[in-house]
Every structure is written in C-alpha cells, then in structure tokens.
Amino acid sequence: MNGISIVSDTNPLIYLLNGSQKAASYLNGKQIWISVISELELFGKKGLTKAEKREIDFLIDNCFVAELNAEIKSITKDLLQITTIKLPDAIIAATALYLDLPLLTFDSDFTRVPQLKLFILE
C-alpha cells in the first residue's frame, strides 16, 4: 500500500469484480474503505454462485469496512435534509465525510454533496 486511502462507492467494486482494468488501476495499491452499505450491496445480485460469493468476501476482507455509527448516522440525516440523493448513497457519502477521505465512484449523483471530495470515473 502506498498510504493513499479512499472510500469506494459500490460501483467501482462491482466493475472490479467484473474485470474492469480502469477500476483496478484506480483501486490498486490504495487503502480502500467501504461503507457497510457497499458491503451489503455487493451481495445484491440475485443468483450469485458460491465462487462469486467467495470472490466478494475476498474483496471485502481486503478493504476496511466502516460500520454505521452515531456520527455517520448524524451526517446521513443532515445530507438527507439538504440533498436529493438516495439513502444508501447518503450513507456512503456520510462515511466518506466522517473518515475525511475522497470518494471514488462512477455515480455523478454524488456531486449533489458539495463538501465531498470526489473522484468520478467515467
């Protein structure tokens, strides 16, 4: 690890699991934090095989998972009052704000949270 820490939204992780070299190049060598929401969303695809579940578990084991705590919940509540992003995205954004780390995402909806430091992939 090169000491660079980021919070990853769920979609770069899904792209990574699907073999995206672009996602891999942004994630490689970094300390990757994820929200507990992203951990759960990775299992949202119906009909995952045992091998796919093992691959997801391996990925999660190589990330730092930020559990939902009182401060993240408080930030989430504030975001829901001032933005139009969905609840899961608000929790992920709140996690990045709580950790004071940039958020890596393919989702431009996060631009609705002006205080976020964003790396938006295309």
Task: Give me a quick take on this structure.
With about 120 residues, this protein is α/β, with parallel strands linked by helices.
Q: Can you characterise this structure?
A:
This protein has 122 residues and is an alpha/beta fold. Helix content is 48%, strand content 15%. It is built from 6 helices and 5 strands. It has helices spanning 10-17, 21-27, 36-41, 50-61, 70-82, 87-99, and strands spanning 5-8, 31-35, 64-66, 103-105, 118-120. Helix 1 packs across helix 2. The radius of gyration is 14 Å and the shape is globular.
**CATH fold name, please?**
Rossmann fold
Low-confidence stretches: none
β-strand amount: 5-15%
Calculate Rg over CA atoms: 14 Å
What topology emerges from the helices and strands here?
Layout: E1 5-8, H1 10-17, H2 21-27, E2 31-35, H3 36-41, H4 50-61, E3 64-66, H5 70-82, H6 87-99, E4 103-105, E5 118-120
Parallel strand pairs: 1-2, 1-4, 2-3, 4-5
Q: What are the key terms here?
A:
alpha/beta; Rossmann fold; 5-stranded parallel sheet; 5 strands; globular
